[in-house]
Amino acid sequence: MSEAIRNITKKVGVPRLIISLFFLFLCFSAVSLGLPFASLSSDTLTRFGMNGILVLAMVPSIQSGLGPNFGLPLGIICGILGSVLAIQFGLVGAAGFWGAIIISMPFAIAVGIAYGMMLNKIKGSEMLVATYTGFSIVSFMSIVWVLIPLNHPEMVWPIGRGLRVTIALDSTFGKILNQFMMLEFGKFKVPTGLLLFFFVMCVLVWIFNRSRMGIAMKASGDNPKFAIASGIDVDFYRIVGSVMSTSLAAIGIVVYAQSYGFVQLYQAPLMMAFPAVAAVLIGGASAQKAKISHVIIGTFLFQGLLTVALPVANEAIKVGNLSEVLRMIVQNGIILYALTKVGGES
Amino acid sequence: MSEITNVTPAVEEKPFLQRLKGFLINYSVTILFVIIGIVGIWLSELPAYFLVSELLTRITRNSFLVLALLIPVLAGMGLNFSITIGAMAGQMAIVLVSHWGVGGFPGFLLCVVISAPIAILFGIMTGRLLNKTRGQEMIASMMAGFFANGVYQFIFLFALGTIIPFYDERMTLSGGIGIRNTVDLSGDNGIKYALDGLIKWPFFYVLMGACALGIVYYILKLNKAKGTHVAKSDLNKTYLSMVLCTMGIAVGAWIMFSPTLPIQVKMMQNLKLPVITSLVVIGLCLFNIVIVRTKLGQDFRTVGQDQHIAQVSGIHVDRVRVIAVTISILLAAWGQLIFLQNMSVLNTYGSHVQIGMFSIAALLVGGASVSRATVGQAILGVILFHTLFIVSPKAGQNLFGDAQIGEFFRAFVAYGVIGVSLGLHAIRKAHEAKKG
Questions:
Q1: Predicted ipTM?
Q2: What is the pTM of this model?
Q3: Domain boundaries in chain B?
Q4: pLDDT for the residue numbered B435
């Protein structure tokens, strides 16, 4: 019996087991406290779809050997730039959404190539340098958001200069995916378009993983020395991984923004890499290995945990934002745990 | 300034141009900062008195925290981002001591005593964690800081008043649970200026005195070295220092005694130096220099150079690394006390958050790297980095008509400096790995 338990813990992983049990516990408390379960679960689904692609961006990065992409803000900035330009060009509705993605792609690809080339020079310290590259670019772009010569009335301050801190998307492409083919069962709403888009992206990455290029990329991440010996240009595939990750981050933030209803500028992207890294790690990935299933499981568990924790925590303690503190502890704890697994080898 | 990690090799003197090139490459960040600083001062058009007095405050306030970073660098663990954890220990002590109502200098001493065991406990825990993340110490220490911040918020927002019985009219939130965002330290029970206010002397008199002492020291040193062979560069350094000291005396005398001075410069006569705080900072400088000469310091250095060789030669590598981090975190806790007695307001959920980042950026600006940092670099870094901090909002205002831009710019520079320094170190490491 204990053997079986040990096998299960080994297979599932201790942190994932703890978090799953905690999630179940929260769900039970939510039900027993009489909280509206239907709206909680539709919130969970929405946040799952909203954050999913940002988490998916971790997969090519980890697979190509770059480790979890702590430089996610680079891609996010490209996506924001795309959205802002799409609004400026007056694109509305579906055209606005697709326009934002299409406009952001050239930026994301260029940034991804440059970023990948940089990461090739600093092998072994990717995570830390990536974090600070992301931080400094976010601060740099904050200057750009003030000085950029855009003038769409939805975006600029009525008085003063620069773009607003948050740009409402009500009149452009807010909630466009969420409301696409939305299913409603009373209070339980399924954001079909959002989920569909996320799953299509997952399938695309899955197909890429099975292509010739994807297999070579995975090989160069799994065992660089072996890959070089078999004639794979490891540095090239690391750049491919970086470009894919950056582009997915750009798409991810556009999806996130349309679902949230606002584009957030300035310091908002600063810390966005960490929840995404944490989600994929909760799903069972490590700093060296990641699969699509890790993304789906991890995002669902992490976002579900946060969604359900909020009202339950408010029942327990009325003041403060316990759920936000919980997020910090779970998120940073799981990243630390993953780091202890990396360090053990070198 | 003495250098702690410098193993002086007996090589012949290189030609001047080559040395100049090496200097320019090693100190490119520092030189860039000197330029940015000068341009910033010029753009900001801030009055000289304001600039100097603000800088003086910031040097005495922040140096201790920056100096707390040096020992882990010596032990090869890189830049210790987890000094935020030490800062949290310091803040816990402050909350307790102001709750007990002990203010002023006794309160400060009590904070020092109480924060020590907390910081040592945190230090040992962090050190053990970093032993498990070998090779990724820096990002692990950063994440440890973030994680600890979550736990800290949990304790101060939710545990106090529920799990831990605690109530204080001045600190507890209106709901009866948790601590307020800001705790005022200026009342009877606070530690405002507990250290700074003890002795304050006019800055330029102190400067003149210190320079005079410096000249005496160098003359004695020259006398002692008479007859023995001294490297020419060392001799030049001594003479240079003496010239600098003489200039210090001259500037001091000019400002204090000259009858015809523009009002802006005359105001500087009023500059006061918190003597005790400065002595504490100098004490820590000396500690960092002296510890290298002890058995423990040698162990740090050996572990820093090669863990494997250290292990083989009978050093408990893991233990030495834990000690290094613990000392750093303990010093950071005390550094945060010095920082907060000067700020005189405890920002419960914010004061510690950026301590690690700013201190590290300052150290790197001074010309330090991930594997080598000296006391002199730390002090120089604090001066340059904080000059930028003082002038950038005003410079942004004057240049772009928006103070925000200056603030974004300094954040960009702080993050950028850390990113570039870490990147350069990684490139060098990758290069050596390829060669070896």
A1: 0.87
A2: 0.87
A3: 22-414
A4: 67
**Integer Cα distance of A178 and A260 in angstroms:** 10
Asked if residues B196 and B277 have their Cβ atoms less than 8 Å apart, the reply is yes
Q: In Å, how far is B132's CA from the nearest CA of chain A?
A: 5
Cβ atoms within 10 Å of A88's Cβ, excluding its own = 17
Residues 171-230 of B with CB under 8 A from A: 173, 175, 177-178
Residue A1 pLDDT class (50, 70, 90 cuts): low
Chain A residues with CB under 8 Å of B154 CB are 322, 325, 329
- 3-state DSSP call for residue B219? helix
User: Which chain B residues contact residue A346 at CB under 8 A?
Assistant: 134-135
- Candidate from A136, A146, A344 with C-beta closest to B415: A136
Q: Inform me whether the pLDDT recorded for B335 exceeds 90.
A: yes
Under a CB-based contact definition with an 8 Å cutoff, are residues B204 and B210 in contact? no
List of chain A residues whose C-beta atoms are within 8 Å of the C-beta of residue B423 = 118, 121-122, 125, 129, 133
Q: Which residues pair with A188 in a beta bridge?
A: A185
- N- to C-terminal Cα separation, chain B: 33
From A136, A319, A342, residue closest to B412, measured CB to CB: A136
Instruction: Report the distance separating Cα A240 and Cα A214, nearest Å.
Output: 9
Q: Is the separation of the CB atoms in B187 and B99 below 8 Å?
A: no
Report residue A142 as tokens: 């904050």
Q: Using one digit for the tens of pLDDT, what is the confidence trace for B353-394?
A: 888 888 999 998 888 888 888 999 999 999 999 998 888 888
Q: Do A142 and B175 touch (CB under 8 A)?
A: no
